[in-house]
Amino acid sequence: MKNKTILQGLILFLSFFGMWFALSNIDFVSIFKIKERTSKVENKIGDLIWDDVAHTENIVTNDSVTKLLDKLIKPICEANKINFDSLKIHIVKKDDINAFALPNNHLVVYTGLILNCKKQEALQGVLSHEIAHIEQNHVMKKLSKEIGLTLIFEATSGGKEGQILKEIFKILSSTAYERSLEKEADLTAVDYLLKTNINPEPMADFMYELAQNNGTMIGFSWISSHPDSEERAKYILDYIKGKKYSKTQILIQSEWKLFQNKIKNLD
């Protein structure tokens, strides 16, 4: 019994010593510096990509349009304690049905998406999905996995930054995140809507509708970069089954139609 107690004490001591030795050899200063550097690079990459987009695409700056989109998004942020002012929301006049997140909290919305959402809740669901990618740091996780930290750092310094930035833009605007991250963004978006008392069903309906029409219509960028949309629509509906929520509409119907008409009549 005595020998057993001594052995247990020795094992405990060795375990503690081993853990202390391992921790003492971790270069926490370097780790935190890398994290800080990555954050700065993320901000710079996002701004550089957006600057390029702003010079090559038709950006909507009409206040009467941008304020209506803000009005749809802001209550979701407030209900979920998301800093609305930290989001950089941009509307691009383009027929593609698309929205995507860029580094440094840039959220890009194509007019084709707004016009093809029959209900405002569907648009809010898609944008909540992209906000979830931002909030869960999925954007940098995706880039780190697909192109690596070395190339991410090179994107802000060196001779090939333009080429790398174009590749990053292509990845983020037209390819899917890995399945687990997409599901996390879907269900986080549903939680955002539920907390705002917005009906998540139109989000699922929109996914299902696009999945059915994909291939028969052009410009389905969002659905093309988010495969298995029919399956995702089903698990969204399963997730909300039995949950109670009021079905608040942020814009009255005439405002929603006005918003879409303004988009349709943009120069």
Give structural notes:
The longest helix is centred in the N-terminal third of the chain and has 29 residues. By secondary structure, the chain is mainly α. The protein is built from 13 helices and four strands.
- Unreliable spans are 26-35, 215-220
What is the number of strand segments? 4
Main sheet makeup: 4 strands, mixed
Helix content: 55-70%
Ends apart, CA distance between termini? 88 Å
Mean pLDDT over all positions:
83
Strand content: 5-15%
Determine the number of helices (DSSP H or I, runs of at least 4 residues): 13
Shape annotation: globular
Based on helices, strands and strand pairing, what is the structural class?
Answer: mainly alpha
Q: Name the helix and strand elements from N-terminus to C-terminus, one letter apiece.
A: HHEHEEEHHHHHHHHHH
Oligomeric state of shown chains? single chain
Task: Write a brief structural summary.
It is globular, with a radius of gyration of 23 Å.
SSE order and pairing:
Blueprint: H1 2-24, H2 28-56, E1 59-60, H3 63-79, E2 88-92, E3 99-102, E4 106-110, H4 111-116, H5 120-135, H6 138-146, H7 148-154, H8 161-174, H9 179-195, H10 201-213, H11 221-224, H12 229-240, H13 253-264
Helix pairs in contact: 3-13, 5-9, 5-10, 9-12, 10-12
Key terms for this structure?
267 residues, mainly alpha, 13 helices, single chain, globular, four-stranded mixed β-sheet
